[in-house]
Amino acid sequence: MDDHDAITVAVEAAMVRIRRRQTRGVLSDGAIPVAVFRVLDAVADGAADTVGALAPALGVDQPRASRLTARAVASGLLERAADQRDGRRSVLRLTAAGNRAVAEARTGRRKSMAAAMADWTPAERADFARLLARFVDAMDRPAD
Q1: C-alpha dihedral over 70, 80, 23, 61, to 10 degrees?
Q2: Is the full-model pTM beyond 0.90?
């Protein structure tokens, strides 16, 4: 294995560890199931405002997106509202409780991330942020 392959394997291993942490609910403190929190995050970020838009934003099929939405609505974290432009359509909105949950989780995640980088120099933190954003942008581009 050459150096390039070894680096790719190391990045993959780190990404798997991050995914496992998220799956265990470490970044969302476990109060809300991770799958439901992903729905809230997508709606809060503007990545999805309908169930139809939610499925591709989460990388799940339509029935799974519908079930997750129903769980978030039943938990009082999300609401469906009539679309003012098209009455046949429902838009998704965070409730006050959903907004609080997202804000609390984001604060917790930021604290956790800041603690993980506490002994890094400002330049290291800036480099990491820049490179991670670049990496995620590249991962979001369609493969050739």
Answers
A1: 70
A2: no
